Amino acid sequence: MAFLAGRKHWKDLGVTKDQIFTELRLALLSLPMQKFGKNTTAAADELNLERPAIPRPRKIPRRLDTGVASPHMFQSPEAMYRQQYNETVDTATSSLDCRFSQTAFKHMQDIEDFVTGKGDCKTNLRFYGDDLDESRLRLHRDMCIDTAKQRGVQLNTFQEVVGFLKGDKGDSLRTMLPELTKLVKLALTAPVTSCTSERSFSGLRRLKTYLRSRMGQGRLNHIVILNCHKNMSRNEHLDLIADEFIKRTATRRNTFLLKN
């Protein structure tokens, strides 16, 4: 699970989320747009760049213009970018609050408290119902903690419990503690998100937008693989790949020059 990296407690992750939410809100109030605009224009003057300007207004086609009022026109570049800045911060804070709901954090925190011996299983049983047996679950939890103490292993977080049960070393424990293993497996299927999956979908959208005007599905798949594995693709020798591409047809051999 993406949230469990770094051996953090689930309650600490909830606090971190609240801190990020607060900092984003404070950023909107602590950075005046006038100061931001002055710093931007000063940097542009030092680099001999053009100052920010309002884009040329575009006339809405008559078939799409359903109102009688004239479109809004910004009076200055500062006003235009102030609107974009406020919209960006508001979108970020609202998305953060919507995506990482407190209910999911509280549920995972209850599971972590139970498997580490700091809480009861009543809340988990109400959520999972007949999937778990209360007496066996509590017994297997206690046996797991006792076994960890005998082996000198600290179980302070949910991730440490997962590491203690997984792999070849935990094979016998999973067989001996099936009820606790079932709870851990159910917890690992909790719906979460990660930056990797979000970034991959964004990359596909960019590729389809800019490159797929006349591209088949096979070629799109190949380009997506190259985009996802940039470190591997950068290590390839482009001249050798280009030579192999040219040699495949007579037309390319007559049109392009081979490097090697």
TrEMBL record:
Cited SUPFAM superfamilies: Ribonuclease H-like (SSF53098)
Organism of derivation: Triplophysa rosa
Domain HAT C-terminal dimerisation: 174-231
PANTHER family: 52 KDA REPRESSOR OF THE INHIBITOR OF THE PROTEIN KINASE-LIKE PROTEIN-RELATED (PTHR46289), HAT C-TERMINAL DIMERISATION DOMAIN-CONTAINING PROTEIN (PTHR46289:SF17)
Molecular function (Gene Ontology), one example: protein dimerization activity
Name of the protein described by the UniProt record: Zinc finger MYM-type protein 1-like
InterPro entries the record matches: HATC_C_dom, IFN-induced_PKR_regulator, RNaseH-like_sf
One Pfam family it belongs to: Dimer_Tnp_hAT
Domain of life per record: Eukaryota
